[in-house]
Amino acid sequence: FASKTFLGWPKTDSALAEGWYRFTGIGGDVLAEGCPSSATGGTNNPLSLCSGNSHPSLTDGVKAMSLCFPGNCLGEERVNVLACPGGFFLYYLYPTYKGFVTRESLKNHGH
User: In what order do the strands lie in the sheet with 63-69?
Assistant: First the structure.
């Protein structure tokens, strides 16, 4: 979403404890892909997976994936991702003054 009118906007993940996370709920269950525009996902500095990344399969183990943010889609930042039985992913996240942006995966739409 691209709203700037909610209380506390813009959000960051600066208070996030470093560790493994699973995304669930209405906000999405996977990190978004593609070079984001600013003011996306409730933050001025959204982080998403760079285009061309594909989530790992169960047999891949932990996969380092490139992250992009507005004005920098070179993938200089990375996040570790792990595929889990049951069709979900874990992401090793860390505190940042940017914000990790999620979306709903296709599996949640019955595709």
Answer: 19-21, 88-93, 72-84, 63-69, 46-49, 99-100
